[in-house]
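A note from the maintainers: we've had questions about how concatenated examples are separated. There is no special marker in the raw files; a new sequence line simply starts the next protein. For clarity in this README we add a label.
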Amino acid sequence: MAKVGAAYPQVEVRAAALMDPRVARMPAGRRVAEALRVAHAAGAEVVVLGDRRAVRRRDLERAARWGLGELGAGDVAWGGLGSVPAGASESVARRMVVDGVPMILVRSGRQVVGVIDPERMEIARPSLSLAHRLDRLESREGETRLWLLRVAGKEAEWLGVPVFAVGGFVRDLLAGRDAPDVDLVVEGDGVAFARQLCEEIGGRATVHDTFGTASVEGAAGPGGVSLGRIDIASARRERYDAPGALPVVSMATVGEDLRRRDFSVNAMAVALQPSAFGQLLDAVGGRRDLGERRLKPLHPLSFVEDPTRIFRAARYAARLGFRLDAEGRRALRLALAVGDYPALSGTRLRAELELMASEPRGWRGFALLLRWKALRLWDRRYDESRRGADRVRAAARLCRWAGRAGIEMDPGEVTVIALLLDQSASVVTRCLARLAFDGEPARRIRDAVMSASLARGIDGARWRTASSLADALRPLPVQVLAGAWLRAGRPAQRRIEWFLRRGRAVRPLLSGDDVVALGVPRGPAVGECLAALRRLRLDRLVRTPRDERAFVDRWQSRQGRRPADRRPVVA
């Protein structure tokens, strides 16, 4: 029995109590296959390479399963790891884990005797509530989202399943940015939850059973304010059978779900059930990385597992002004060295391209991809032109101009044209095939890329009148005109802009029926007469219906017809 006032010794837990001693050590520079053999022989969960690198056995197994056994083991390892003495206070190690370190080496003297792996330990983290931030969503749309989050939490509580807002919504909430859509994750049946939520808030649910996901669209909150698109998923873990393949998914906890995501800043969640509303879950240091404007992938094989994450990294860096951290740059180099990713569909690559091209600062993302040499994922022979970044910036400027002018122009296609302008014909063909362009769309883009002679002709004022220029440009698709604009000097760009905005829309004031009534016989002659009138209007040689009627009389005379040949107009 404890005695009142008595002093008792306090036992302080040391870092060694948190470590996993199942480690093997080997020199840096060995191959994946060799490191895996050592790990199996020693029954080790982690292989330590040199002084500050370590790789989990499951990452070695994954690389070997993908046929990458000849890679250097250091290529799939975490580098620059921190360490603590075995006798250090447990609180020191816990603070490092909370900061999001991937692993901690535990040393006895100079020898590594174990590792502390955050993925294998339960740790009480500081409780941080974002409820006050949610309550400050002051705009009308923000208030509507807060209403949605509270309704979702209550519906989940009624169903007996935890639900969380995740990903970009949480990232942007912490950054003080407006997130247009809400992503929800349910620890349980996400599809059943989506249907239940839909009954409560209205709208229509689209279900994707293969991935246990659903989306709700068309719902509205108080006052009829649209809730936008709500994506709902079951918490899941993923297994990739080949680099770039679509994952095989299975049910998991929300913690496991967060650890399978792309970057730490997107791997945070906020609890929505009323008893824990607003509580932040941050298992990988996303909040700290957000503050340091850093994109950190969640494991060294992240970009090999899913190369589209490279394009997302560029998109987030452009949109948010973030940078890829040192380990991310290593993961990028590894992914680009691995191969051509036959399991990665061109449709997925193209979707990432179109997403980035549609963003206001998307051109910055493409400039990053060029700097990273990431477009070699399209074709190994892709040559990063020094003009590439300028071309994609010009493409973005052209698309913005077209949008203001009411001209339909696909930003994704125009960006592809800009990125392929300086490539050889064979590289262009292979890139278009890799991006799943075929048939007429591929032909239009190929013609646009090969538009050098057209650009030179416009630059050189080959067509000296407005009508001759319009006649030359009218048969061409807008993609080809975009390609010529990207190649041309400023005078020629102004001519193309004039044609797109005004020249191609010019029509005679008289209609086909009008010229028939003036005596032009039905058939090809009507089109010829109207085309002649259009040219005169473009060159400002006729201005009024009276001018056009006078021309029709003269035109018929030149064709051997007299104005008296006019047919009576039947009322």
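[label: protein 2]
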Amino acid sequence: MRRFVWLLLLVLVANQVGAAPPGDEAQDEIAPIASPTRIIPLPLQVVAPTQAALPFDRVIYVLDTSGSMLEELEGAIAVTGVFASDGFKAAAITFDTAFKRWSGVKLPCTHSKDEECNNNCLSEDGWCWLPAHQDELMGYLDSFKADGGTSPGPAIEYAIRIAPAGSLIVFISDGIFEGDSVVHAAQDSMDWRLKQMLSPVRILVWSTDKTSDVQESLIELAKIGGAGLWRADVHVSGPW
């Protein structure tokens, strides 16, 4: 039941972030967001997962699996379990002292018997389709145990640099780490995208800590990312 509630909550987060996904002819454009800053207490309106879709066609989850996440890791993993419409792709990056990207799901060969196939279609590209590969994504993340130190800077830098146009990065952490490192990494990577003439990406920050104020590092990262800040199950502020 707890995991299901998290799923419904993240669907509502998605509806706060932006407009419907742009068509193929305008994927490099990101619609402006004009949403007032507000706090939304529970209970939240229940939305059927099968009727929900994220306003982005790809989402990159960046998940903190360090030792300080011992009590929050199960709920943090549940945040990645979004039921979305067909055509939605997801990637997962975990970090403690180092980061690791999930290899994704091998897609079945679509060639007919009469066509040549070099098996490239079977390669893992670091992405999966949701909801078709929901079990594979959750199974991979469930294999992690909260352990180790916390170094989020390289993880967020990598996520920003590899994010395709029309992507949303969801950064999930308790924020217990050296804040300057992740803030500088995020800002430098955003600047790098501009210099490379790549479309900007948005970062939604999800704080898992329910017992204390949101860490300043997460607030600053959310302001850079522009897609809003959530504390466990409450919308704190943004998008900006």
